[in-house]
Every structure is written in C-alpha cells, then in structure tokens.
Amino acid sequence: MPSQARPRRRTLGSSSLEVCEVCLGTMTMGSMTADEGDCHEILSKYVELGGDFLDCAEMYPVPVQEKWVGRSEEIIGTWLAGRSDRDRLVIATKAAPSEADLTRAQILRACDASLKRLQTTHIDLYQIHWPERWVPKWGESQYVAAKAEAGAHTLEGFDAVVSTMGELLSSGKIKHWGLSNETTFGVCMFVEASRRLGVAPPISIQNDFSLCFRTFESELAEACAPAHCNVSLLAYGVLNGGALSGKYLDGSASPGARFNFVQQLDMGGFQGRYKGEQSNAAIREYAALAQSIGVQPAALAQAWAYSREYMGAVIIGATSVAQLEANWAAAKLELSADTLAKIDEIHVRHRNPNLTD
C-alpha cells in the first residue's frame, strides 16, 4: 500500500501566491450539478477539508450551451456572498478569446462581467482560456501553418494582452494572471513581453495533462521550469474526463457521469479524445496496476500527477460531496518508486494515446 502524505501548499511561478495543490474545478456547476444548493455544499466541504483554490471560467459550465454560460461563476458568487472568508480564498477564472487578436476592450469587458457574476472585488488569478491565435489543441499536436496564417493574429497581440493585464493588475481588479491551453512559443513570448513592458509575468499555465496525455513533459516543461520562465502547471483533465477511473470500461458509470450526460444532450463527441480505443487500452493497464497495489484507478492517476515536480496544482472536479472526498484523499497518496517506474513502462507502450493527429 502506498505511504501517506498530506496535501501540500505550493507557490505559483515567480509570485508569492501560495495555494493548496488540490484545486477545485467548477466547470460542471450549473449543468451536471444543476442544483445551486448542492454546488454550495461541495464548495463548503472543499474549504472544510482545507482547500482554498477555486477555478472557473466565464464560459462555464461545459459543454457550452447558451442557457448555461456564466452560471458557474454565478454559483460561486452566491456562495461567496454568504461567507466572510473571501480573503483566504484564491479565486481563478478565465477569459475566452476568439481566434483573432484579443483586444484590450474584450479583456476588460470580460473581467468586469466575471467580477459581477462572482460578486467579488478582485480575481486572484485571471487566465486567458486558450490562445487567440490558432494552435494545436484538444488532443492535436501538429502545427499547421495554413490554419495559423488564416487567422488575424499578429505578434503585437502578445504585447496587447500583457499591457491589458498590467492595467488590470494596477487597478486591483486582478492580483495575478496566467495562461491556459498554451504552447511553448506562447509562454516564451508572453514572458518576454512582460519583461519588456515592465508587467508582472504569467505565473501559471492551465493545460491538459494526464497519464494518457503527457506532452507537457517535453518542451513546455523546460520553458516553464523555475530556471527559465518559472510558470507553474495547473493540470486539468487528470482523470481523462473520468475515463481513468475505469468506470466507462466496466459499465459502472452512472447515467449522470460526464460522457453519459453529454450523450443525453446529443453531444456525444464532447471530449472525444479522452475515450478512444487507444486511450482505453492504456486505461486498462493503469487500472490493473492500481488494483495490484490496492488503490482505485482514479487515485493512482491523481497521485501520479501530484508527484510531478513541475506541478502547481491538480484541478479536480466533483459532482457530489462523496466524489470530492474521494478525489481529495488521492492527494494523500505517495506512490512508491516501483509504482512510478511501472507507470512509465505503461507510458512507453501507450505513449500519449489521447493524441488525435
């Protein structure tokens, strides 16, 4: 049985911002968890357990439907309004760009709207949800120049974003800023622009990362290392949309589980990269390894993510208090060197099976 260790606190990037390494993601609040009271119960239990780091986005919940947009922030806002501990919480949210230059006006407008929905005077970590320029994402890995050139993005766009973040920092509306679904090139360009313009640099990058998608470990890990750009990874998708729990392989997934839920919405292709046969083959081996050491497959996947030296926080989701408690417990697992080696052996056999190109 793996030894126990407590969830740790980690400092993000070059900042002094310290967070619990277990970050509660809220992208299902308002959709899969539709009842506001149930969402508030999950949020309160997370804080009771010792958490302080919440992640949201202006477009949440997902999958995106017009009737839901902004609902997750609104739910956090009504919860915050009934509490007196706002200053001990770290609230992160994101602005969603189009694939063209992200303008100052767009960012300022999005930030003000998020502040209103969240019912707060400031956002602790404000992130660009994905690059405004075309980049490979959602399981893609290959840069396609023709797609990039078809967009309206210019290199001056990096300066525009950094300048606007500087304006928001100076106003006190945000305390720090970060990136999401970004590339090595993008990280380096934003950090360099920050240096030139005298703006505090991005402190985090929220990217897809799991046993089935370890692409961060190459160039991005080098760029984000403390000795270089010093940008901490906030990992989403650590459970592959829940697939790494094994519940979709053995038929134990409930009707309300993510992929069953989206099927009911006639959106069965949502996050398809997480559930292809190549990924399922890897998941079977990881599940067998978990069984051999006496832990749940989901716990193995999360514990491995926490073991990564470049990890700032692992973003967990929860549609119930029971699921939250199970995911929280995974942060207490410390995997042995032998188990970590076996994970790498499986990775060699099934390297990044979520890739779609």
Automatic annotation (TrEMBL):
This is NADP-dependent oxidoreductase domain-containing protein. Gene3D superfamilies: NADP-dependent oxidoreductase domain (3.20.20.100). It comes from Emiliania huxleyi (strain CCMP1516). GO terms for molecular function: oxidoreductase activity. InterPro entries: AKR, AKR_Detox_Biosynth, NAD(P)_OxRdtase_dom_sf, NADP_OxRdtase_dom. Residues 22-346 form the NADP-dependent oxidoreductase domain. It comes from the Eukaryota. Pfam families: Aldo_ket_red (PF00248).
